[in-house]
């Protein structure tokens, strides 16, 4: 009875969302403050890059296992453990800093610990949404969750910048810990239903490693879901050739304020997109949300952004491109939540995310090498490339990087139109793959009636 009296549905989800939003904002402020501390201590940009890599390592190694564990165990407990793991990293840094024993290598270990918590957090929260809210509200709920991703990009630097001179790193770390407790407290207040066991879930029961692999098997056995995953892999690969920081810095003569303005505009666009999607709920056809969003990302966020040469052009295109991204994100999340049985979502969502990020470690290296050795030298000298595209992106420093954005936008739109006109398996996914609750009802209806007294 106690569980029933606790908030659930959109109200319960709103409690959880509030706790996460506050906690992630404080964690973003901590990250920003630690970046200041690390650079002041080492003066090394490479050291900061190692911290980012250390954060990603647990995801790349453990994501499938994390998804299987989310499906095996209580999701509220898994969410709490992910928050506690990240809190443990913050406590470690706080103690070391308070005893004047904090060194840069401690941040590497703390980043691994935080990354471990994040590896479990995303599939646990994503899978919990589908058990808390009706599927008609999936896009709205995911619009709210997108604010958890984008909000810190806008407000965390402001909060950290205001508090750091007053309370220092120690004060910000203490605030972060307090918000972790707040997030865990909101989880204690709500009821998160246990997902019903599906036929696929029962059949997939095995040892942990086999269950971890099952997420990939599930996707590969369904052409439409696999096609959607590969659609996003292709788009993620293409988008990796747009390098925003080098592009803006090269165009503006290393003006960091201009880069900050563009990054803030993109983050604000994400916040606006999340708010609009939360209030509106997205298109009734969720594939429409994805396709409309991806079209405008390619056109505005890449092609038009790449031909820009000043802030007056970059700020609105960055904001609008980011806003469109959250329309696509909300539609995609809603589709996966509707199609995959809740008791399988942890491992399937982890597998899907790992597939989508498959090109992540590759494209930045390729894009950087292309800019350093091909596009930038060619566009700033007398070559056929500068003659062919100079009218569009110019021939000054940054033009080669701008050309990469333009070409990435063209490739992005080409992939979009191929799917729109020639890949009905993806375009009609919502019709070809039944929702998991519809499939369950059909299975129950077709089952033989029990004999009297059985």
Provide structural commentary:
It is a single chain. This protein has 454 residues and is mainly alpha-helical. It folds into 2 domains: 1-192, Up-down Bundle (Growth Hormone, Chain: A); 207-447, Growth Hormone, Chain: A, CATH 1.20.1250. Helices cover 82% and strands 0% of the residues. It contains 20 helices and no strands. The protein has helices at 2-5, 9-42, 45-72, 75-98, 104-132, 138-189, 199-203, 208-220, 223-239, 244-251, 256-280, 286-307, 311-339, 345-356, 363-379, 384-393, 399-422, 424-427, 429-432, 436-446. Helix 3 crosses helix 8, helix 5 packs across helix 14 and helix 11 runs parallel beside helix 13. It is globular.
Summarize the topology.
Elements: H1 2-5, H2 9-42, H3 45-72, H4 75-98, H5 104-132, H6 138-189, H7 199-203, H8 208-220, H9 223-239, H10 244-251, H11 256-280, H12 286-307, H13 311-339, H14 345-356, H15 363-379, H16 384-393, H17 399-422, H18 424-427, H19 429-432, H20 436-446
Helix pairs in contact: 2-5, 2-6, 3-5, 3-8, 3-14, 4-5, 4-6, 5-14, 6-11, 6-13, 8-14, 9-17, 10-11, 11-13, 12-13, 12-17, 15-17, 16-17
CATH architecture of the largest domain: Up-down Bundle
Number of domains: 2
| Average of the residue pLDDT scores | 83
CATH class of the largest domain: Mainly Alpha
- In terms of quaternary structure, the protein is single chain
CATH topology of the largest domain: Growth Hormone, Chain: A
Query: How would you characterize the largest beta sheet?
Result: none
Binned strand content? under 5%
Poorly predicted spans = 443-454
Summed up, the helix count is 20
Radius of gyration: 23 Å
Alpha-beta classification: mainly alpha
> What best-fitting shape do the alpha-carbon axes yield?
globular
The percent range for helix content is: over 70%
């Amino acid at each position: 009875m106690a569980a029933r009296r606790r908030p659930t549905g959109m109200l319960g989800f709103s409690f959880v969302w509030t706790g996460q939003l506050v906690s992630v904002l404080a964690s973003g402020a901590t990250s920003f403050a630690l970046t200041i501390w690390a650079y002041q201590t080492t003066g090394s940009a490479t050291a900061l890059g190692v911290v980012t890599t250390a954060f990603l390592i647990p995801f790349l190694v453990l994501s499938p296992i994390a998804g299987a564990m989310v499906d095996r165990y209580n999701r509220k407990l898994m969410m709490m453990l992910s928050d506690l793991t990240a809190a443990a990293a913050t406590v470690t840094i706080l103690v070391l800093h308070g005893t004047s024993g904090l060194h840069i290598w401690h941040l590497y270990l703390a980043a691994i610990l935080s990354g471990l918590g994040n590896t479990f957090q995303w599939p646990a929260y994503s899978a919990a949404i589908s058990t808390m809210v009706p599927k008609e509200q999936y896009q709205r709920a995911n619009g709210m969750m997108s604010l958890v991703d984008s909000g810190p990009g806008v407000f965390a630097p402001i909060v950290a910048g205001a508090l750091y001179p007053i309370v220092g790193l120690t004060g910000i770390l203490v605030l972060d810990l307090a918000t972790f407790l707040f997030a865990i407290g909101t989880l204690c207040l709500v009821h998160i239903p246990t997902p019903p066991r599906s036929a696929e879930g029962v059949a997939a029961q095995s040892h942990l490693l086999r269950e971890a692999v099952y997420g990939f098997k599930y996707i590969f056995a369904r052409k439409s879901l696999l096609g959607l995953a590969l659609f996003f892999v292709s788009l993620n690969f293409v988008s990796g050739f747009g390098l925003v920081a080098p592009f803006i810095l090269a165009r503006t003569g290393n003006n960091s304020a201009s880069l900050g303005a563009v990054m803030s505009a993109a983050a604000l666009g994400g916040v606006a997109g999340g708010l609009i999607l939360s209030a509106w709920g997205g298109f009734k056809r969720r594939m429409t949300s994805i396709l409309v969003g991806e079209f405008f990302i390619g056109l505005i966020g890449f092609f038009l952004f790449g031909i820009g040469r000043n802030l007056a052009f970059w700020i609105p295109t960055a904001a609008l491109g980011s806003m469109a991204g959250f329309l696509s994100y909300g539609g995609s999340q809603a589709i996966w939540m509707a199609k995959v049985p809740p008791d399988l979502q942890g491992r399937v969502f982890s597998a899907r995310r790992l597939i989508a990020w498959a090109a992540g470690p590759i494209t930045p290296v390729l894009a950087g090498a292309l800019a350093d050795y091909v596009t930038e030298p060619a566009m700033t000298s007398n070559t056929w490339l500068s003659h062919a595209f100079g009218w569009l992106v110019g021939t000054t420093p940054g033009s080669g990087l701008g050309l990469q954005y333009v070409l990435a936008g063209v490739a992005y739109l080409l992939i979009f139109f191929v799917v729109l006109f020639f890949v009905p398996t993806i375009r009609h996914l919502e019709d070809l793959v039944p929702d998991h609750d519809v499939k369950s009802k059909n299975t129950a209806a077709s089952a033989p009636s029990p004999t009297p007294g059985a």
